[in-house]
Amino acid sequence: MAKPARLTTLFDSYFCGGLPSDTRMSRHFYGRNAFSAPPGVCLLMLCFVLWALTPPALAAPHRPGKELHKEIEALEMQWRQAQLDNDVSVMDRLLADDYVGISASGIIETKAEALALRRAGTLHITQLDLNDLKVRIYGDTAVVTSRADLAGTNGASDISGKYRYTRVYNKRYGQWKIVSFEASRIHDTNEREKH
Asked: Is the domain covering 66-194 a CATH 3.10.450.50 domain?
């Protein structure tokens, strides 16, 4: 292996600093080849390659447009109408296979259980007014919160009242599916003071 050429210079005179100095500094010089580049250029190229390989989802925050919010709101209206019409086929299409719902009374139900309840006609909803609907999008997940004024029965029980709920959608194979639901009954101020 060839030894590098050794050059001894006056430190300040080499850098043209204009200050006198007797300090002798040695410096090694290596010849450049076609693959060598200044360290700054190498760092810049490395940053560019890493940026180019970064997935788009990580590169910048996703700001969903109004169209996506409108799409989720439209799905909420489809779900509402299916509840009023007891349309099991629409419910089946909108619910994900791994759907889990939690009722206001704390009962957990799967997709199969929710559809069976509707097919049996046990749950009967005559009014469902939604308001204060908010949609938040997180990539392929949409979270809906809303208030529902409901009139109906579940078997012999009257379930009429005011509720707050959270419904979660997940986009799978290009389609939004409901994966989770949880409801809480809103108690009026007088009832809260009694408890």
From this structure: yes
* Dihedral in degrees, nearest 10, Cα atoms 6, 8, 9, 11: 90
CA distances from 39 to 44, 101, 134, 146 (A): 9, 58, 52, 57
Dihedral of the alpha carbons of 157, 163, 168, 169, in degrees to the nearest 10: 80
Q: pLDDT per residue over 13-64, tens digit each?
A: 445 555 555 555 555 545 555 556 666 666 676 666 776 676 654 544 455 5
> Token pair of 47, please?
């940053």
Sorted by where each begins, the domain ranges of the chain are: 5-59, 66-194
Amino acid at position 107, single letter = I
CA 154 to chain centre: 34
Asked if 94 and 174 touch (Cβ cutoff 8 Å), the reply is: no
- End-to-end Cα distance, the chain: 90
pLDDT, tens digit, for every residue of 100-159? Answer: 999 988 999 999 999 999 999 888 999 999 999 999 999 999 999 999 999 999 889 999
